[in-house]
Structures are given as structure tokens and as C-alpha cells.
Design goal:
This protein is mostly helical. The chain is built from seven helices and two strands. This is Shikimate kinase.
Length: 169
């Protein structure tokens, strides 16, 4: 299977996004699975239509932390961040900042937001890089549980209101 970078290079970003949308559409009819999209999946409303058939979670990572991680491993596998020259951290941070500004409203459509800065603060860390995958997973599950409980309570309340109106009639 070709990498994302190869697909962008050989075909185009639009080709990749079309295929990404197609896969999300197909996956949206399935149950009991986790789909981890890339950051660009949020830019198409049709993708949100499909993602909203389930529960969407936004892992909100500070741009500085993302830029450090990307600079450390390189940008060759990330076609929108790949820069031929310059300081890797500065280039990644600059591009990530631009993408975050373009996509920020779209990310906010997620049902649940898991902020790594909030987790780090709660655990007494001064840097999100000190978080473990377990720290992030536990907070994600807690946030998902809170969303589901709240969403269920709202649905129950609406059903009760409708029932009372029907009974009054």
C-alpha cells in the first residue's frame, strides 16, 4: 500500500481526500470500531456527516508539542508539512499554525475534546510530552463516558417532554 506522501505525489491531495471520504463513508455503516483519521479529514462536511454517525473525539495537542514530535521524526511522511529546507521545528510549527487556523472551527465539531494540556496540568506535568498513552486513554474514556451520559440524559428528557405533551393532548 502506498504511503500518504506517495499518493499526494503520484496523484494529488484531492485524489487522497476523495478516497479518504469514500473510506469514511464505508466505515460509517459499521459498528464497534475506532477510526483514527488524519487532521485533514475534518475539512470536508461530508466526512463530518459520516463521522457523526458515531462519536467523534478530538485529541487536542499543543502545536509546539506536535512540531517537536514532527521535527524529531522528519516530515517526509507528512506531505502538507514537508519542507525542503529550514529549521524543522520552525517550519513544522509555522505550517501547523496555519493548518490549525484553517481547521480550528472544523475540529470544534467533535463530540468530545481531549486536551493534552489539561491532562498534563491535572497530573502536575509542565509538558504534555510527559504524558503516557495510558494517561491520554483514561482521560479520553472519561470524557467519552461523560458525553454519553449527558447525551443519554438529554435524549431521555426530550422523550419525557414529548410523552407529557402527547398525554396532555
Amino acid at each position: 500500500m502506498p504511503s500518504v506522501a506517495q499518493i499526494f505525489k503520484v496523484h494529488s491531495e484531492a485524489f487522497f481526500r476523495d478516497n479518504e471520504s469514500s473510506v469514511l463513508r464505508d466505515l460509517s455503516s459499521m459498528r464497534r470500531l475506532v477510526v483514527a483519521t488524519g487532521g485533514g479529514a475534518v475539512i470536508r462536511p461530508v466526512n463530518w456527516k459520516n463521522m457523526k454517525k458515531g462519536l467523534s473525539v478530538w485529541l487536542d495537542v499543543p502545536l509546539e508539542a506536535l512540531a517537536r514530535r514532527i521535527a524529531k521524526v522528519g516530515t517526509a511522511s507528512r506531505p502538507l508539512l514537508d519542507q525542503p529546507s529550514g529549521d524543522p521545528y520552525t517550519m513544522a510549527f509555522s505550517k501547523l499554525s496555519m493548518l490549525a487556523e484553517q481547521r480550528g472551527d472544523a475540529y470544534a465539531n467533535a463530540d468530545v475534546r481531549v486536551s493534552l494540556e489539561e491532562i498534563a496540568s491535572k497530573l502536575g506535568h509542565d509538558d504534555v510530552s510527559k504524558l503516557t498513552p495510558i494517561d491520554i486513554a483514561l482521560e479520553s474514556l472519561h470524557k467519552i463516558e461523560s458525553f454519553v451520559v449527558e447525551d443519554t440524559a438529554v435524549a431521555d428528557s426530550q422523550t419525557e417532554s414529548q410523552s407529557q405533551r402527547m398525554h396532555t393532548l
